[in-house]
Design a protein that fits this description.
Largest sheet: 9 strands, antiparallel
Number of helices: 10
Helix content: 25-40%
Structural class: alpha+beta
Strand order of the largest sheet: 5-2-4-3-11-8-10-9-6
Number of domains: 3
Shape: globular
Length: 347
């Protein structure tokens, strides 16, 4: 279907066709763990498998999607994510960006409109390696690294639909906080797991039998790869096998990290509540830093305009009530790096 054939009330971002949008919406959720997963998705969408794979190639090449494959949650395997920030002088911004992005442990890096104007996520297989990466950045740049390790996760589930308002990946709108969840048990990575992560951390091969292709690389079988990925999904080490969109290219040009100063006695109850709200893709408790940072609750918000994001933040403020003392919304102005987990070779 051509763009000219779209219903009058449907507006897609430039360069995205209707079948692109259908594919993006579907693959943000999951790819089946079957021998020919693209055949299965193509049948759902009434497409042909070769055309679906070619379309996915193009969306990645054009930057509409940033990644496609397993999304690893290294903390479920005993590792650590650390959100950190730098205050970078404008004249050094390009230099410092190159230094920070050079580390494989830097999974994401964003420019944000704040005195702390560079925010990045360190992902490493051990806490020691994560903190060592922070030290490396501080030594290389000569700038203090302000680290905010995750103390508790309330929700993670980015889903940016193009065709319709859709329910979140695992939660519905709530007005009362969900029951607290038990702490997960870490899964020790095996040698096979490390081979599997190394072969897929940059993405799945876009071929009819991607799991068989991965298996050939690591000297295993497609069935063994699919079975282990299923186990890692069940353990939470893999969040999902899916497409990661470039939210700017999908029209979500306003992306704000909302940060909240919430009564410590209430933050867990209210964090669960905030994490269950529409528009919130990530919600965490993080430490304050006296004299630098007063906020202990973080919630990422996404919208088509800044006013839309600020309206979402106002809804959150109402839900937090008197336990909320102050907040800010730090809008991102550039994606500096977005690769996801990269384990060092030989780790």
């Amino acid at each position: 279907m051509r763009r000219d054939d779209l219903p009058a009330d449907l507006r897609l971002p430039p360069g995205i066709e209707l079948d692109d949008a259908r594919l993006i919406d579907r693959l943000q959720r999951s790819l089946p763990l079957t021998e020919r997963p693209f055949t299965d998705v193509a049948a759902e969408l009434q497409m042909a498998e070769p055309q679906l794979i070619e379309r996915l190639h193009r969306l990645l090449k054009d930057g509409v999607l940033t990644r496609f494959g397993p999304l690893y949650h290294i903390e479920r395997a005993g590792g650590q994510f650390i959100l950190a920030a730098l205050q970078v002088p404008p004249e050094r911004y390009a230099e410092v960006t190159a230094l920070v992005n050079a580390l494989p442990e830097v999974a994401h890096n964003y420019r944000r409109e704040h005195a702390l104007n560079m925010w990045f996520v360190i992902a490493a297989e051990t806490p020691e390696a994560a903190w060592a990466a922070c030290d490396q950045i501080e030594a290389a740049t000569g700038l203090p690294v302000h680290a905010f390790p995750k103390e508790r996760e309330y929700f993670v589930g980015l889903y940016l639909p193009l065709l319709a308002k859709a329910p979140r990946l695992d939660a519905a709108t709530a007005t009362t906080a969900p029951s607290p969840r038990p702490a997960p048990v870490a899964t020790a990575l095996t040698a096979f797991d490390r081979q599997l992560i190394a072969a897929t951390q940059s993405g799945l091969p876009l071929v009819p039998r991607p799991y068989d292709t991965v298996a050939a690389v690591i000297g295993s079988s497609g069935a063994a790869v699919r079975a282990r990925l299923a186990e890692l999904l069940a353990a939470g080490v893999v969040r999902r096998i899916a497409a990661v969109p470039n939210h700017y290219r999908l029209g979500y040009t306003a992306n704000g990290m909302s940060v909240w100063d919430v009564d410590d006695a209430e933050v867990d109850r209210l964090g669960e509540l905030i994490g269950s709200q529409p528009g919130v893709s990530h919600c965490y408790r993080r430490p304050r830093k006296p004299g630098v940072w007063r906020y202990n609750l973080f919630a990422m918000l996404h919208g088509h305009t800044r006013d839309e994001v600020l309206a979402q933040a106002e809804v959150l403020a109402q839900l937090l009530g008197p336990a909320h003392r102050a907040h800010e919304v730090l809008f991102s102005s550039a994606i500096l790096k977005k690769t996801g987990l990269r384990l060092r070779q030989g780790s």
